[in-house]
Write a structure and sequence with these properties.
Shape of chain B: globular
Oligomer: heterodimer
Strand content of chain B: 25-35%
Strand order of the largest sheet of chain B: 6-7-8-3-9-10
Radius of gyration of chain B: 18 Å
Structural class of chain A: mainly alpha
Number of helices of chain A: 9
Helix content of chain B: 25-40%
Radius of gyration of chain A: 24 Å
Largest interface: A-B, 24 and 33 residues
Distance between the termini of chain A: 64 Å
Structural class of chain B: alpha/beta
Chain lengths: 246, 246
């Protein structure tokens, strides 16, 4: 009985020193907000980059033959853009994000604001993955849909916007939201360049209190709860999309 | 000015630097009001030829004149000319995410700048003609194959084309649905539509065709009026082919 109450009071003390003293919980809160900010803006940047890359890659895939036969400068421009896009995707997916982040912070954008750097690093990286998600969505639409659009007289662009892309949303939206979840967890390495994100907040408390268990478990729980909530959201969206299926 | 709608000269489609010749020098004229039926064994190039006429397949050599314009010239905007060449596909290719009326009106409203009412009215009257006016609000997945193909035909007609291209329109249909599609095509032919039809339906070729073309190995081997074509074939390969299919 005595041992149990002793354990409880120790636990309480640890909790107080970890979160209450000097309002240390605010680090966790601030860290969480920073993680969310980095995730959201990185995804927005990733969407822009991804749309551009996917547009180049799928335009090339769909028009390569016709353009090659017809010749002209357009073919070489598109071919060059496609090669650039492919290289970009290879590099971004082949180099660990933490290394990319450090390169941005210590090599390219030295002595700038740290959170924008993280947004750029994560966003440009995510763009490569988003591009492949979009391209996969476009390629999964039966080419007959595309040909029917073209045969009616729609241009390539009109066909994509009116007919093909609306049909990709159902398959790409859940994958895109999963990318958001992955990105949120990935931002936990932002501390490498001194950003106070959620993980770093736990680390900072550990450094001051020399308590590892309490702050790290707290951080883990915040990540887990956020991810579970986001996953639920994805499931709801998926169910909605399926219900609209005809 | 001749009464040829389409004039094809020396049309070639080579792959792999000429090792594979899908089309190997095709010359053909299609006159206004003609119903030209193209038959031949699979791999003979008949579908490639048909799909070249509106450049869904980009030929590697030769010219196609449509209404006196060489559409293989890369300065020509093919989208304008495709509006006047309706196409019907083996697999229907109705836009899956749109209901029937939307399938039929999206091109006229966007490309011909018709008002929604005008396009709807035209679409409904065409649906009535093929006995599907009660399915205007249905989605493609709710229709049978034969119904889909009838819609695909009238969708093309909504653009008021000068020529209709049919790429094996009954090959993907259950046998009992072939008739309803052929009936629509017969009506169309009787109404004076210029048609180019790739098909295995010899009965249709004989009954409705004004001219039958036999292709093999990427070349036109024989062409004639239906009566002489079927009753008095000249070429051995055609005789052999007809002995197998009739």
């Amino acid at each position: 009985m005595n041992a149990l109450s002793l354990w409880f009071s120790e636990l309480k003390e640890t909790f107080i020193s970890c979160f209450i003293t000097d309002d240390r919980w605010e680090w966790i809160a601030e860290g969480f907000i920073n993680s969310v900010i980095i995730t959201v803006f990185a995804l927005l940047l990733g969407l822009v980059v991804g749309v551009v890359l996917a547009a180049i890659r799928s335009s090339y895939d769909k028009n390569e033959e016709a353009l090659r036969i017809r010749g002209g400068i357009g073919y070489y421009v598109l071919k060059a853009l496609n090669a650039i896009a492919k290289t970009y995707i290879t590099v971004m997916r082949g180099v660990p994000v933490v290394v990319q982040l450090m390169i941005w912070y210590f090599v390219i954008l030295v002595s700038s604001e740290d959170i924008p750097i993280a947004i750029v690093a994560f966003g440009l990286n995510s763009g490569a993955y988003v591009a492949e998600i979009f391209r996969g969505g476009i390629m999964s639409v039966d080419n007959g849909q595309f040909e029917a659009g073209r045969s009616l007289g729609f241009s390539y662009f009109q066909t994509m916007v009116n007919i093909v892309i609306p049909q990709t949303i159902k398959s790409t939206l859940p994958t895109l939201l999963n990318e958001l979840i992955a990105l949120f967890k990935e931002t936990s390495i932002a501390g490498y360049v001194g950003i106070l994100d959620l993980t770093k907040a736990g680390e900072r408390i550990r450094g001051i209190t020399f308590e590892a268990f309490m702050p790290l478990i707290a951080v883990a729980i915040v990540y887990l709860v956020t991810v579970v909530l986001l996953t639920k959201f994805v499931e709801i969206i998926e169910r909605r999309l399926r219900r609209n299926e005809r | 000015m001749s009464d040829n709608i389409i004039e094809v000269r020396g049309l070639k489609k080579h792959y792999l630097g000429g090792k594979v010749k899908a089309l190997d020098g095709i010359d053909a004229d299609i006159k206004k009001g003609e119903v030209v039926v193209i038959i031949g064994p699979s791999g003979s190039g008949k579908s490639t030829f048909l799909r070249s006429l509106n450049l869904l397949e980009m030929p590697t050599g030769g010219t196609i004149n449509f209404n006196g314009v060489n559409i293989t010239d890369k300065k020509v905007d093919i989208n304008i000319h495709r509006q006047k060449m309706g196409m019907v596909f083996q697999h229907f290719n109705l836009f899956n995410n749109m209901n029937i009326i939307k399938n039929m009106t999206i091109a006229p409203t966007q490309l011909l700048k018709k008002s929604k009412e005008e396009a709807n009215e035209k679409a409904l009257s065409l649906l009535k003609r093929v006995g599907l006016e009660d399915r205007a609000e249905a989605y493609p997945s709710q229709l049978s194959g034969g119904q889909k193909q009838r819609v695909a035909i009238v969708r093309a007609l909504c653009m008021e084309p000068e020529v209709m291209l049919f790429d094996e329109p009954t090959s993907a249909l259950d046998p009992e649905m072939v008739g309803e599609v052929l009936d629509v095509m017969k009506d169309l032919a009787r109404a004076g539509m210029t048609m180019v039809v790739v098909t295995h339906e010899m009965g249709f070729a004989r009954e409705v065709g004004t001219r039958v073309i036999f292709m093999d190995g990427g070349k036109i081997i024989e062409e004639n009026n239906p009566k002489d074509f079927f009753e008095n074939p000249q070429n051995d390969r055609l005789k052999d082919f007809l002995s197998k299919v009739l």
